[in-house]
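Q: Okay, next protein. This is Phenylacetate--CoA ligase family protein from Metapseudomonas boanensis. I've checked the sequence twice, so it should be correct. Can you predict the 3D structure?
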Amino acid sequence: MKLDTQSFTYGLESIYKNSRMEVQEDSYDTLEIQKHIRQRWINEKVDLLARNKWTTQQKLSYALPKLSSVVDYAFENIPFYHEFYKSHGYKLGEIRSVDDFKCLPLLNKGILRSVKTEDFIPRGISKDSPEFFWSSTSGSSGVALPILRDIGSVSNNVLSYYRMFQQLAGDEFSPDRWIYNIHHIRSWTSSMCGDYPTFTLNDIVEPEEFVRHLEQIRPVILNLLPSYLPVLEPYATRISALKMKAIITNSEASSRHEREYYSAIFNTYVLDEYSSEEVGIIALECPHRHYHPDPDQVYVELVDIESSSGDANLASVYCTDYLCRTMPFIRYDHGDIVSTGGHDAYQCKCGKYGRTIERVEGRKDDCLKTLGGHYVPTAIVTNTLDSHFNATPHVESFRLVQKRNISDLDFLYVGSDVNLVEALVASFASELKRILKMDVNLKTIRVDALPTTASYKRKKIICEA
Ligand SMILES: [Zn+2]
């Protein structure tokens, strides 16, 4: 029988109440798939860990045939890619070098929005077949993108998470130790047939009870949104007594400064995972504070960009999920900008080779800023925006823009006349004041269409400050 990891609530009311929501990964979290993943983990663990030490040349030798194969596969089997690449003159078998690959056009959400889902999956497969699993992107982008995976793609992604935990926890990552996850998604299985169990909490509502729960579960790794770190600060002594091997932040912007601060007070590494629902883990921050792209699941291109302010080392990130055969994202631009370090022959003190990501810059413009210079996580503001405007027939689409003077914000929307939305905007404004802990001057602007953003992401929140 499958271990019901969510039943380990130890009679704690708020933990029980906030762990009942299904996560989208539950669709593949069956005992059968857990068995499959457990077997793969046993067979492939040594290889998976060894790949972390690959040189740039080794990574390239691994990547090239796979890039060539996924491009040809997509060109032959997926209607969208066939038309997309054909219109750029692509012919089967033309990827013979990485330079050839880099001549392919980029994909982004703007392009995908105009593509019908059935044109983005291989011909002849049934969307509703039980061997396929649907998930979807969420968060700040405004449009949910459905994603189709098969068992191969699911288990590759899950294994890359277990590898991350193993890498961070070392010998202490034993089958009886728990992983604790605070999120509405989990990205891996709830256990491997009872081994390496994960408890998923959707939200911390009672911090005291949450810490008591941690003390019962005694996880080796804790995954959370960085916005929870300050909530846990009053419990630093008790949390550091748990001797967790790492706290992994994800999904929202956090600064290195913050992570170092919380590493010190929680007495464990607080490290950032840079990932996306589309492709999985893109890069993980190491204890020496460099993000290293995963060497084998996703091909990560860091392409230098000129910045108007003259900042050095800024790059766009293009990802290729080259093992996926249901819905491969090829040269996919999430719209993120990062700053980079190192070079192909560089070896970090952690042992990993190649160029590094020093900071994920792009997602910061999804965050609002406060007078105290703090970032307010997108998730909180997005939820508030959604709860006000998603259900009204008077607002078709919207965007919140924080201006250079940070108490000035514009609410842009497409929809009915201003007098029909005023009351909602006023209610949102008072909620926003509470979140930002400052006075705000919110201007309502009705537009015919929301302006396109440079990254093509349809953003709900933009910070110009
Ligand atoms: Zn490193």
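A: Here is a summary of the prediction. The chain has a mean pLDDT of 89. The pocket of zinc ion is lined by residues 286, 288, 290, 292, 348, 350, 352 (CB under 6 Å).
Q: Noted. On to the next one.
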